[in-house]
Design goal:
single chain; 580 residues; alpha/beta; Rossmann fold; twelve-stranded mixed sheet; six-stranded antiparallel β-barrel; 23 strands; elongated; nucleotide-binding; P-loop_NTPase; HerA_central; ATP binding; ATP-binding
Length: 580
């Protein structure tokens, strides 16, 4: 169908005329009940404007049928009445359709609402071939983008592909939300595999449960694991250590310091001095004179934790000679570390924390930082894959926020210290983000440190080429600062009222009614709204080629099997060993 026909729609497509206009809402009077039956909530309409070459595109928000009112034709006439129908259709303005002319060679669609219709302007229903033509136009404009990102097809027009601008999607941060079983991981996998298909992709996926492991069948996706207890003696090539010396001062204190301890301020002060001394000693021994002049307590300098523990132990037992009495008195820090030192020792000896403290010679060398950064941030250059999955499944939950934020902070720091011309963009995919990016009022010490790093990335990351793709089943529990920076939302089925409200708060005012759709979405259906999407729409997500292993357990079917299998002995053994 010629696009010009959108400007010359048949009269039988006209459902009514404009009788009220607000700032972004338009109300349509529909005089015919039969026409009203064709109008459906969340459908699309085309409205005339004062410019014959411009049409307003709107989304139907509400349809109201009203009882006809009798109106007398003539004051003196008897039994001469007509029925006035005031059926009302409320439409939210979405964008503007412009025909050729004024410097344009063809029909185009823009999200900007440049011209509202006048009272009495005709309203046409976009259905059938007209809807196909319109969605095709939107797809054509998106296809003009270089390597468009396609997640599926429009529910209202299955033949039209829902294509979004990949540049804007990753520039402005994005979010994928949905209840358990709604197809959230499926959607994330669809995005990830399309990124992996690009020649020079660069993405880092925080996988908390190992569910994205099947995606490594893609040639441009590689998987690393944070070292578990069974990896400490003979780690494989896919194992990553995150040495304690990468932790900043506040992060380390959040890990080992008990803020409720009366001696916490003294412990923090003495610990900082001991760390600085240990780093200074390490730099002197390595003859890194330039670094010695500029290092700080947060500099990623490998240092010996034994040196720190020994210095604190000395302070804890220190005696000071009183010259006036000739007797020894307790030193200023004597006994102040009686709780701190056992706590530090317990952390260091816990094999679950081995990726931090159980280090070999390689991880205690400054060159290890080069290797780690290269593993995490290298872009796709065969045979090295550009999409990296990092499996955090064996990291203890109590320190998980600090460890994930350590990786994110390292990425941001590398980007900040890179020259602008050498800065290569990277996306951080935060799966199950509600577990480590909660609201501040419900965050503990570890979560607060993680939030500090991620909120900085959310606010400043775009300047340095760092993007966040947030994936969560509980958007209401996420940090409001991180949420507010996500300008692209892929929302699957959500039924919880607080979760629906959290998503609707991110939408423009003229799209607020979309939250009412969320509980009605089917599995694998989503509403896409944001700067990257020309047409806020309900779409059916295409099946990814490489599917994550996130399917729900089929309780009933498994219970019905006559020869079920169960290995409790192996589970207990793994629990003892703290490793799978």
């Amino acid at each position: 169908m010629s696009m010009q026909l959108l400007f010359n729609m048949a009269d039988d497509c006209c459902v009514g005329v404009v009788n009220r206009v607000d700032s972004y809402r338009v109300h349509i009077a529909v005089p015919d009940d039969m026409l009203l039956r064709k109008v459906h909530v969340n459908g699309y309409v085309l409205l005339h404007t004062s410019d014959p070459n411009t049409r307003l595109v709107g989304r139907i928000e509400r349809v109201v049928w009203l009882e006809p009112e009798q109106q007398k034709l003539e004051e003196d006439a008897e039994e001469q009445y007509e029925y006035i129908v005031n059926n009302d259709v409320c439409v939210n303005a979405l964008g503007t359709l412009k025909g050729p002319g004024g410097g344009r060679e063809k029909t185009s669609f823009t999200r900007a609402v440049e011209l509202l219709p006048e009272i009495g302007a005709k309203c046409f229903l976009l259905a059938g071939p007209y809807l196909t033509a319109f969605t095709g136009l939107v797809a054509e404009e998106s296809v003009g983008l270089s390597n468009p990102l396609c997640l599926g097809s429009y529910t209202i027009a299955p033949d039209a592909k829902a294509i979004i601008d990949g540049n804007v999607f990753f520039q402005r941060h994005a979010m994928v939300v949905g209840s358990t079983g709604s197809g959230k991981s499926w959607t994330a996998a669809k995005i990830i595999e399309q990124v992996a298909g690009l020649d020079s992709s660069n993405m880092l996926i925080f996988d908390l449960h190992g569910e994205y492991a099947p995606l490594t069948d893609h040639p441009n996706i590689v998987r690393y694991r944070i070292a578990g207890p069974s990896d400490l003696e003979s780690p494989g090539d896919d194992v990553i250590f995150l040495p304690y010396w990468l932790l900043g001062y506040e992060d380390m204190l959040a890990l080992v310091l008990d803020r409720s301890d009366d001696n916490a301020p003294n412990q923090a002060m003495a610990f900082s001095c001991a760390v600085i001394n240990a780093k200074r000693k390490a730099l002197q021994e390595a003859e890194m004179l330039e670094e010695l002049r500029t290092f700080t307590i947060d500099s990623p300098v490998p240092y010996d934790m034994e040196h720190v523990a020994a210095e604190l132990d000395y302070l804890n037992r220190e005696k000071v000679l009183n010259r006036s009495t000739g007797k020894e008195n307790n030193g200023p820090f004597n006994g102040r570390f009686s709780r701190f030192l056992p706590r530090l020792s317990a952390k260091r000896s816990d094999r679950r924390h081995g990726f931090l403290f159980h280090l070999g010679g390689e991880q205690l060398q400054a060159d290890y930082l080069h290797k780690l950064v290269d593993q995490l941030m290298h872009y796709n250059r065969p045979p090295r894959a550009g999409v990296k999955i990092v499996d955090f499944s064996e990291v203890p939950s109590d320190i998980l926020p600090i460890i994930i934020s350590l990786v994110a902070k390292l990425v941001l720091q590398v980007q900040q210290w890179s020259h602008a011309e050498n800065r290569y963009p990277i996306s951080l995919v935060c799966d199950e983000a509600h577990l480590y990016l909660p609201n501040r009022h419900s965050a503990g010490a570890a979560e607060l440190r993680a939030l500090a790093h991620f909120e900085r990335i959310a606010k400043e990351g775009r300047k340095y080429g760092v993007n966040l793709l947030i994936i969560s089943q509980r958007p209401s529990e996420l940090s409001t600062t991180v949420l507010s920076q996500c300008n692209n939302v892929v929302a699957l089925r959500l039924s919880n009222q607080s979760d629906k409200l959290a998503v609707s708060n991110l939408l423009p005012e003229n799209l607020g009614g979309i939250q009412e759709i969320l509980p009605t979405l089917g599995v694998g259906e989503a509403v896409i709204v944001g700067d990257a999407c020309l047409l806020p729409s309900r779409i059916k997500i295409d099946e990814p080629e490489y599917k994550p292993s996130s399917g729900s357990v089929q309780f009933w079917d498994i219970w019905a099997e006559p020869n079920a299998k169960q290995d409790l002995t192996g589970a207990v053994r793994n629990m003892w060993r703290q490793s799978t």
